[in-house]
Each structure stands twice: as structure tokens, then as C-alpha cells.
Design brief:
The protein has three domains: 162 residues, Immunoglobulins (Immunoglobulin-like), CATH 2.60.40.10; 228 residues, von Willebrand factor, type A domain (Rossmann fold, 3-Layer(aba) Sandwich); 39 residues, no CATH class. Helix 2 packs antiparallel against helix 3 and helix 9 packs parallel to helix 11. Strands 1, 3, 5, 7, 9 and 10 form a six-stranded mixed sheet that branches. It has a six-stranded mixed sheet with strand order 17-16-13-18-19-20, with helices on both faces. The relative contact order is 0.09. Helices cover 37% and strands 31% of the residues. The protein has twelve helices and 20 strands. It is an alpha/beta fold and 438 residues long. The longest helix is centred in the C-terminal third of the chain and has 27 residues.
């Protein structure tokens, strides 16, 4: 418990000096008016401290969710109760968090009603890991408004920040019900692909090239071949976990957007019979799961994705993609999540992607930096604005050059805003299956 004077108390205390000076100049025998004034103020301060509720006569509590998904917002509440004694008219609250969480507002004042005051606030999970509430504080004034009493409770409460698995499954189920682009069912089974399924009676509207003339002659009826989507494809998500992927985009690290998109792809791919694996790398490979199959494999991939942490190291494409290539035993769809740093790293990346393309289908996922695009488009008002616009235009031009070179090499490209990269990746994956490119 800390006790200290309010601004009003300091003002009243300071007022004693001019009172004593004035009394000493006008009537020296009244010079004791100054010390008497100070003593009076001190007595009022003591009375205010005694009348205001102490630590033992108030309860301070925090109501917050036990865990949060990265990028989500939850309602929380700081509350002070005064069950005994005189209750103050208002309470000031404050909360101290680590860098994984943000509170809005982090400080505020609440009026006391029915001997209790509560400050609701929004708790935002900004980065995966162990979010922590270090301390909550409350302070209140005495009935005379001269003294503050402040209580600081050290909580060290851990609020784990995890991947948004519920959001991933909701998005997958929504997209399973209809295609985001043309409104058709995306869980294609019969009627698409190139794997033979069965013979069926030919019906108007069916492709005439599907007619099996030999079997039709044998059975005396017009029969057509029915195909289904190919299964058992290998999908490997190669996630760059280096320094640039730890930078925020739309309020969340690029790596979190990439992991959410990866798990969305894994959820749908496993449901459709394909095998999915994870591979992470920065300066060196840091995760390699191999491919797994079946819907029950999704929790395994989920736990592995949660272990991928943020890194401050530069990405080594040569070491990462070379080791990945050596681990792939058959033709696979390699989905690469990365960001372009500079021309030198881009050249190394392109060289190693070229080696992957000799045997595998490569799909690059690029997140559009809308903040950088806004800087480049904004009308400059100062020389600093011009400098920022030139740098932004240079970075975007270099990025476009790399994307163009990847396209010419035969790499499939997914480029979308960070918050829509998951559905865009899923649409591209389904399109590749329809075109029988896997």
C-alpha cells in the first residue's frame, strides 16, 4: 500500500509559504500563521488517510480469459470492492502486461456504485507464447480529496496465446460448404479428377469422351467412366521462421498468419485424403515433421505448429530448401511461406527454388503489405514523406520483380492480404487438384 498527497494537498501545502511571508511583512507578530497553516493541512491529510478505506477494507480482482488465440480480442474487467468502511467516489485502475498482450484502455477511472467499481477493457493477444499479467493497480482518494491510497497487486498470471484453431476450423467448414469464388461445393469427389472410379449409365450433359465403347458394346447399354479426385498427394508446408516473418502485419506477426493458413490447408488436405507435413527453417532447419495422413493427424500438426517460435536470425534458403529437397521421397506440392528481404537473398532463394522445381510443384505464398502500399500511394507533404514513398516504391518494385521471375520459372503464386491468405491458399490448392497438377 502506498500513500501520497494529491495535487490539491500539494497546492494547499504550498499556500502556507506566501501566507507566512505576507503575515511577516504586514504584522511580524503573526508570522506563526504560516506554520499553523502547514500544521492544519498536515492534520487534514492525516484525517483523510484515517477516513479512507485501507488495503484490508477493499478487494481487488481481475477477470480475464484463461487463454487467447493470437489476433483475437476478449473482454476483461478490473474490479475493486469496498465491503467495509467508507467507500470512495471513484477508483483509478492500471494494468501491467508483457509484450504478448495489449489492454485498451490500460488505465482508466471508474465511478463507485453499490460499494464497487469496475473498469472493463479489451485484452488483445498480439503474439503467440506466454502472455503475462504482471500487476494490477488501483488507487483512490480519501473523503477530503487530499491523499491517494494505492494498492499494487503482483499477479504474474499467465495467459497462454495460442493459434486460432477454432477460427481455422470454422473457416474450413465454411469453405467446405461452398467455394469462395464461384459458390460451388469444394469437397469434390465424383465427377472430377482423373482417377477411375466406376462405370455408370451415360446421362445427358456428361462428357462424351467419358463413354467406354468396349464396355457399352459388351453390356448392350451406353456406359461412361466416372472419375474422382486423386488422393494421397504429398503436401509439404515450408515455413520461413526468420527475422522478417516475425515482423507485424495487420497487427499480427507474419509468421502467425502463415501458420494459420498452413493449418487451414492441412485441415482441408487431410479431409480430402492427402498427406500433409510441416518444415520450418530460419538460419537452419528447426522443424521437420514428415507427411502424415488422416483427419486424426491434424492435432499432431497443430501441436508442432504451436512449437514454432519467433526468430531474429536471417533466413538461409540454401540450407533450408536443400535439406527439404533431400527429405522428399516423391513428387510433392511444396508450399513456401516467406518474405523478400533484399536482392541477394532473393537470388539465393530463386536458385534453390529452381532445384525444387525439377521434381516438385512449388507454390509460393506472398502476403501483400497494404501498409507499405499505402505509404507508396500517399501524397507526400514533407521531404520525409517523399523519402518514405521512394523507399516503399523500391521495396514493392523489388518484390514484384521476384514474383515475376518466380512465375516465369513455373512457380504457382498466391498473393493476398495477410488476413485472407488462408482462403486464397486453399482456393489455389483446390484449383491445382482440379487441373490434375499435383
Amino acid at each position: 500500500m502506498r500513500i501520497y498527497p494529491t495535487a490539491m494537498a500539494i497546492f494547499l501545502m504550498g499556500l502556507g509559504a506566501p501566507v507566512a511571508l505576507t503575515a511577516g511583512l504586514v504584522a511580524p507578530q503573526y508570522w506563526l500563521a504560516g506554520p499553523a497553516w502547514v500544521a492544519l493541512v498536515l492534520a487534514l491529510l492525516a484525517v483523510d488517510v484515517l477516513l479512507s478505506p485501507g488495503r484490508g477494507r477493499m478487494d481487488l480482482n481481475l477477470t480475464a480469459p484463461p487463454s487467447l488465440a493470437s489476433g483475437t480480442v476478449a473482454e476483461a474487467l478490473m474490479r475493486a470492492d469496498f465491503p467495509r468502511g467508507v467507500a470512495p467516489t471513484s477508483v483509478d485502475f492500471a494494468i501491467d502486461l508483457n509484450d504478448r498482450l495489449e489492454a485498451e484502455p490500460a488505465t482508466g477511472r471508474a465511478t463507485v456504485h453499490d460499494r464497487a467499481a469496475g473498469l472493463p477493457f479489451r485484452l488483445t493477444a498480439t503474439r503467440r507464447g506466454e502472455g503475462a499479467v504482471h500487476r494490477i493497480s488501483a488507487r483512490w482518494r480519501g473523503p477530503l480529496g487530499l491523499m491517494w491510497k494505492q494498492r499494487d497487486d503482483r499477479l504474474e498470471r499467465v495467459v497462454p496465446v495460442t493459434l486460432d484453431i477454432a477460427g481455422i476450423k470454422d473457416e474450413a467448414l465454411r469453405l467446405f460448404s461452398r467455394d469462395a469464388s464461384i459458390g460451388q461445393r469444394i469437397q469434390l469427389d465424383l465427377g472430377g479428377g482423373s482417377d477411375f472410379h466406376a462405370l455408370t449409365d451415360f446421362r445427358p450433359g456428361m462428357n462424351r469422351r467419358a463413354i467406354d465403347w468396349k464396355q457399352s458394346a459388351r453390356h448392350g447399354a451406353l456406359l461412361a467412366k466416372e472419375f474422382h479426385i486423386e488422393r494421397n498427394h504429398h503436401i509439404m508446408a515450408a515455413i520461413d521462421t526468420g527475422r522478417l516473418m516475425s515482423e507485424p502485419l495487420l497487427g499480427r506477426p507474419r509468421l502467425d498468419h502463415a501458420l494459420n493458413a498452413t493449418l487451414l490447408l492441412a485441415y482441408v488436405g487431410l479431409k480430402m485424403g492427402d498427406k500433409v507435413g510441416l518444415f520450418g527453417f530460419d538460419a537452419r532447419p528447426n522443424l521437420s515433421s514428415g507427411v502424415t495422413s488422416g483427419p486424426n493427424a491434424f492435432p499432431v500438426l497443430q501441436r508442432l505448429a504451436a512449437t514454432i517460435d519467433y526468430s531474429t536470425e536471417e533466413t538461409n534458403y540454401t540450407l533450408g530448401l536443400t535439406q527439404l529437397s533431400g527429405q522428399l521421397s516423391r513428387r510433392s506440392l511444396v508450399v513456401v511461406f516467406t518474405d523478400i528481404a533484399d536482392g541477394t537473398s532473393a537470388e539465393l532463394m530463386l536458385e534453390n527454388v529452381g532445384r525444387l522445381l525439377r521434381q516438385h510443384l512449388v507454390l509460393f505464398v506472398m502476403m501483400r503489405d497494404e501498409e507499405l502500399e499505402a505509404i507508396e500511394r500517399a501524397e507526400p507533404a514533407t521531404p520525409d514523406d517523399v523519402s518514405r514513398a521512394v523507399v516503399a516504391a523500391s521495396l514493392l518494385r523489388e518484390r514484384d520483380t521476384v514474383v515475376s521471375r518466380l512465375r516465369r520459372m513455373g512457380v504457382e503464386i498466391v498473393e493476398a492480404p495477410a488476413d485472407r491468405v488462408g482462403p486464397a491458399l486453399l482456393a489455389s490448392y483446390l484449383d491445382l487438384k482440379r487441373r490434375d497438377l499435383l
